[in-house]
Amino acid sequence: MLASGSGTNLQALIEAPEVSSHIRVVVSDRPEAAALGKARDAGIETAVVPWSDHPDRASFSVALADLVEEAGAKGVVLAGFMRVLSADFVERFSGRILNIHPSLLPAFPGARAVEGALGHGVKVTGVTVHFVEEAVDTGPIVAQRAVEVLPDDTVDTLHRRIQVEEHRLYPRVVAAFVNGALTLEGRRVVWS
User: Fold this and answer.
1) CA 172, 175, 181, 186 torsion: positive or negative?
2) Confidence band, pLDDT 50/70/90 cuts, at residue 48
3) Which of 78, 121, 164, 182 is least surrounded, with the fewest CB atoms within 10 Å of its CB?
């Protein structure tokens, strides 16, 4: 698992027994990430690969990929990881990287999805789980859940409601992934 922030999605995954037993390591780019404390509290190994220790995205991604492989992970789950992975990282784990995003992709890709939904005045946004490709938030979509945008929503209120759906959806998808029931064949998602 890769996480940069508070770890709310990571906590939902830790609380899912069919997922937590498969977590080999939680890695962050930020030593102060609250997600690391949640992992440690659950008895899960943690590691930090500081962004600032590397001259560029490519060398950071190599160090990250090496650490993930050394931990014995067969796949990578992004749980609020806020760095764009290099093409080499994505290729090394091709078809084995999942991400969760707070919009109904392909709408509002990138780091400001909730702000984008509010700024465009959409009535519905949501959450998407997708396989990761080199381009940001473009990989094959696995599952989505809609979330209504209310007239008085702020970024915080809408994001909290989106997180409720994230915490319901991501454990289900990741459980299928770690148990081999969810795979990617070419660009086709297969969920058996």
Assistant:
1) positive
2) very high
3) 121
185: exposed, middle or buried (C-beta count within 10 Å: 0-12, 13-18, 19+)? exposed
Distance CA 146, CA 161 (A): 10
Q: SS3 of 116, please? A: helix
Report d(CA 125, CA 122) in Å as an integer: 7
CATH no. of 8-183: 3.40.50.170
- Is 101 catalytic? The answer is yes
Annotated catalytic residue, options 22, 54, 101, 167: 101
Residue with token string 């992992």: 39
What is the CA 18 to chain-centroid distance, rounded?
A: 17
Beta bridge partners of 188: 185
- The whole-angstrom separation of Cα 132 and Cα 97 is 5
Separation of alpha carbons 124 and 97, rounded Å: 27
Residues near 41 by Cβ (< 8 Å), separated by ≥ 6?
A: none
- Residue 188: pLDDT band (50, 70, 90) is very high
* pLDDT given at position 49: 97
What is the identity of the amino acid at 51? W
Tell me which residue has tokens 């969760």: 100
pLDDT digits (tens, 9 = 90+) for 1-10: 999 999 999 9
